[in-house]
Amino acid sequence: MMNSHQRLRVHRLIRVCVRVRIIVVMVWLASAWQLVAAHEIESTRISLIQREPGYVSASFYVTSIAFFKPILEGAVTDQAFEVHMATLDDDAFAALYQKCQMYYKQKISFQSAQDKNVLISNWQFPHWQAIKKDLQLVLAQRLVNPNAHEHLEPVQFNMQLTSSSDLSSLRLALPKQWGKVMVISSKPQQRWIENTKDSQWIKF
To answer: Pairing state of beta strands 55-62 and 182-186?
Structure first.
């Protein structure tokens, strides 16, 4: 039987081996990310739907890197981002995600053409566990097959815009780290139709 000193040495050796394996996996994952990144073009986009003159629903679809980038502040390179985020412990990931939510509630604003204030309410963010799980899943798939074209789902969050003035024209203030974004704006057409064989055609 091993004495206490021998057991301590074995435990230390095991911890070292585990750390080495983690480093090896991280290197492999970073290499896989670089191989796939060249084949992917992702962009941040915003969907604005004017449902009533003074009411607009807004949906943001932000790439994972762009979502966390303002808070990370260059502490992690784009190449190492996915590995870094996927290997964070839960408490650190949740805290970072909470900071991102607070940041966007301060930095995102809208202005109407009448220069009236636009109220932003009903912010809805996905749970942090869903985002971390997606990061880990994609990295695992890339490790198994670096040539696979797996990609991360964008982080989607929603909000409602209301104003006493017409919101047919809006100006956005967004985080500068996002750079150029795609904005899709629309105003649904509503009509009643008869539920008959000869009902009206619906045009888009």
So the answer is: unpaired
Distance CA(30)–CA(40), nearest Å, equals: 15
**pTM of the full predicted structure?**
0.73
What stretch of H or E contains 48?
strand 45-52
Phi and psi dihedrals of 120, rounded to 5?
-105, 125
Helix H or strand E segment including 173: strand 170-173
Alpha-carbon distance values, 2 to 6, 7, 17, 55 (Å): 6, 6, 20, 73
d(CA 180, CA 109): 16
Token pair of 60 as six digits: 């943001």
Structure tokens given for 68 = 């966390």
- Where do runs of H (alpha helix) occur along 116-161? 128-144
Query: pLDDT tens digits for 24-53?
Result: 444 444 444 444 443 344 689 999 999 999
